[in-house]
Amino acid sequence: MNIYRYEENPMITPVDVKPYHEGFEVIGAFNAGVAKYKDEVLLLLRVAERPISENPDIVKVPIYNTESKEMIIKEFDKNDKNYIFDDPRTFRSTDKVEGFSYLTSLSYIRIARSKDGRNFTVDSEPFLYPFNEYQSFGIEDARVTQMGDTYYINFSSVSEVGVCDSLVSTKDFVTFTDKGNIFAPENKDVLIFPEKVNGLYYALHRPSLKSIGNYDMWIATSPDLQHWGNHKHLAGVREGHWDNGRIGGGLVPIKTEKGWLEIYHGATSESRYCMGAMLLDLENPTKVIARTKTPILEPEAEYEKKGFFGEVVFGCGGIVNEDILQMYYGVSDTSMACCELSIQEILKQLEEEM
Amino acid sequence: MNIYRYEENPMITPVDVKPYHEGFEVIGAFNAGVAKYKDEVLLLLRVAERPISENPDIVKVPIYNTESKEMIIKEFDKNDKNYIFDDPRTFRSTDKVEGFSYLTSLSYIRIARSKDGRNFTVDSEPFLYPFNEYQSFGIEDARVTQMGDTYYINFSSVSEVGVCDSLVSTKDFVTFTDKGNIFAPENKDVLIFPEKVNGLYYALHRPSLKSIGNYDMWIATSPDLQHWGNHKHLAGVREGHWDNGRIGGGLVPIKTEKGWLEIYHGATSESRYCMGAMLLDLENPTKVIARTKTPILEPEAEYEKKGFFGEVVFGCGGIVNEDILQMYYGVSDTSMACCELSIQEILKQLEEEM
């Protein structure tokens, strides 16, 4: 696989983003959804901010009360034996055997704009800021599906009641229409196909399962983009492979003559995130035709290996120009990068490795 | 609360049900959905069967291959240090911190019929037997919502890929139409309202959350009963109460002049299951008007306290005759019982405790 990483990488980093909250610092500008709007490339950045803490032993947790529109900051002592601080992103109380009680930062969606796809200007205000009670811990990892002149944007809504996937639509990236929580918790990595297949909308999704089952990819149908059903298991983690820990949709599925090309992410059980590809039947996307045995992109560059949470490449969107896929991807839960790949090469790898 | 428990209780027990599988024993006939069909009361029993094991140290796990239609029996030694055998219903491998790897029995749905609502005859064949790959570990806890002459039956589909909620419809309780998995895993205790509210179908559901959130009740809407969205958090577990561990819908919501009356189950963190009530706004069922502080039914009778998994009353269906609610309920994950309650008394308790 020939990968052309842009010379500008990492093209957007936390220092390029002015904190929206006073007394906060930006620790991440990453995992952006991507849209082509008018003559610009828009990156719907996930911006993660946290209250500045002078004391390294104190973790300050930002929680946004969407009703009163107040930011509440809770303080925790890292020596507090009631909590386990073993992840920079989250921590949990000792009575929880897994998962998290709090996030160490609050994310929301902010737009970065570019005419050339390489040099971006970051908006000074958020585009999607927590606007209901399902988002008091933040909004994460937007994906954008364009249909005609409407852009459907879905993202994770995180709060103490769970992690839902929510949908809004926009025509101008200024105002938006709320379409509610489209997938019940716990679900992430929802990718809506860009057109109906046999009269129904399709979406990939990735439930997180408590009692039984793995972090696998599922697929569902919808008559209206708001209500989803007919849930089917699509693809699972693979023991002994680079995607043995968890998988989830990455980019909006790309229509090719061979099938729907889905660029997905997979992680090892040690949380090393790579991107792979699968090919789904054009007429019946619940059928996996092929899946790459090896990643198409893995953390190799310094900015992909080191950061807030290292060894992560995480693509949430791309732009297709004939054979060239420009894939924008988050690196190390910190910054944004971009690379170009040949769709024909990916399809060839899929054919060889199927 | 005046509770009239039937003299026939427990009215159906495992010895009343002939095993469907050779070499198996019935260990449970419980958690039945309820339908009034023609002049009969139908109980859609969850029948749990397990392979007879001569050796108390050997656990035999039944798994049904829905493609080849073969029952596979896996054997596990209770002394095997790779598994933790701390629950009669399930066990897990030591690399799982919670949840289960296998069930110790396989459940399916079998109908019991009665003219008087007290004396039942159990069909000799299953009505709903695992029919797709999401059900290889079984079908559990049916609920029945009647609309006109169509009965919608939803239930848990359990397999190694997760626990989904699935829907079928029937007009005769002989044949049925498969409507697919209507809620993605992990979800249980789905209760479909018996009529549309403001043009949409409604259902309660109970996701099981891995990372954050409790075993709470949610509510969703649908245009067609198959696709669900607009997921909202409805009611949570209550610290210090009888329902501090988990809650979930019980009976199909009952329309009253005061609102939708939902009889739900709640359990302590030690898994003592009781039934409580909540009242939802008639025009907007996402709004909880009142909720009982104390249970309306709790395990008191011997058959409710002792059994395969004791201290459980678990209602999945009922029949309303003017003020009388005949509630059929599973006891101790073993048998079926029935009691009569006054709807006005429940509404009065709701008013007093709101």
Question: In words, what does this structure look like?
Answer:
Two copies of one chain form a homodimer. Chain A has 354 residues and is mainly beta. Chain A has one domain (4-352): Glycosyl hydrolase domain, family 43 (Tachylectin-2, Chain A, 5 Propeller). Chain A has helices at residues 302-305, 343-353; strands spanning 4-5, 24-37, 40-51, 58-65, 70-77, 83-84, 90-93, 102-103, 106-114, 121-122, 138-147, 150-159, 162-170, 177-183, 187-192, 201-207, 217-222, 227-235, 246-249, 254-256, 259-267, 273-280, 288-291, 313-321, 324-331, 335-342. In chain A, the strands form seven sheets. In chain A, strands 19, 20, 21, 22 and 23 form a five-stranded antiparallel beta sheet that branches. In chain A, strands 1-26-25-24 form a four-stranded antiparallel beta sheet. In chain A, a hairpin with a 5-residue loop joins strand 21 and strand 22. Chain A is globular and about 55 Å long. Chains A and B meet through strand 13, strand 14, strand 17 and strand 18 of A and strand 13, strand 14, strand 17 and strand 18 of B.
